[in-house]
């Protein structure tokens, strides 16, 4: 693991006090036309949004909010029983135009900095890899970032995220209702059932995001619920 690059301070006024210790890392894309617009919005007191860090396309890292404080990046969200995700998480915005403005692959330099930053935060707060998630994982009905092009496999190979299971897959034959119960047990809010399935696919089966519960989805989810999911090797 390379050393973390120098971090540029770019303070945002949009934060308050944490009510929970950090146990989650949330990855976002900025979803705006350019980095300057995104950074300006995250620092605008009228916008009432922020993140702890922004990672630019060239790998530059900006710190907007100190990790000790509660940045306003998650919105209404849920993960594994936690509803105040902002209090329990560190938020990282990754510059990318997103699905609205011409979604594109993330540059290698950018992902290298994301990996170094996630590793440092994970070490500082003892975050488990199952709690390193995307915005769409914690808010499936509202969000789709960082999206199906985000290279989760690169993080998983460094134990910075859960892998996509690839070994010894068995179809448990769940009904759709059984799959949704298991998906909720894994961590997702399943109130909007199709949105939850889409979010799961976007993360763990990105080549086919159709919202349909099929045998492959069931096999992947079952493997993820086992003590040591294996894959992405």
Short description:
The chain has eight helices and eight strands.
Task: Describe the protein's topology.
Blueprint: E1 7-9, E2 15-17, E3 24-29, H1 35-42, E4 53-55, E5 61-63, E6 69-71, H2 85-88, E7 89-94, H3 108-125, E8 132-134, H4 135-138, H5 152-156, H6 176-186, H7 193-204, H8 215-225
Parallel strand pairs: 1-5, 3-7, 3-8, 4-7
Antiparallel strand pairs: 2-6, 4-5
Helix pairs in contact: 6-8
Describe the structure.
The protein is an alpha/beta fold and 233 residues long. 31% of the residues lie in helices and 13% in strands. It has eight helices and eight strands. It has helices at 35-42, 85-88, 108-125, 135-138, 152-156, 176-186, 193-204, 215-225; strands at residues 7-9, 15-17, 24-29, 53-55, 61-63, 69-71, 89-94, 132-134. The strands form two sheets. Strands 1-5-4-7-3-8 form a six-stranded mixed beta sheet. The protein has a two-stranded antiparallel sheet with strand order 2-6. α6 (176-186) packs parallel to α8 (215-225). The radius of gyration is 17 Å and the shape is globular. It starts with 6 loop residues before the first strand and ends in an 8-residue tail after the last helix. The model has no long low-confidence stretch (mean pLDDT 96).
Quaternary state reads single chain
Low-confidence stretches: none
Kindly report the average pLDDT value.
Answer: 96
User: Order of strands in the sheet with the most strands?
Assistant: 1-5-4-7-3-8
Distance between the termini: 17 Å
- Sheet with most strands: 6 strands, mixed
Count of strand segments: 8
Descriptive tags:
233 residues, six-stranded mixed beta sheet, two-stranded antiparallel ribbon, 8 strands, 31% helix, alpha/beta, 13% strand, 8 helices, single chain
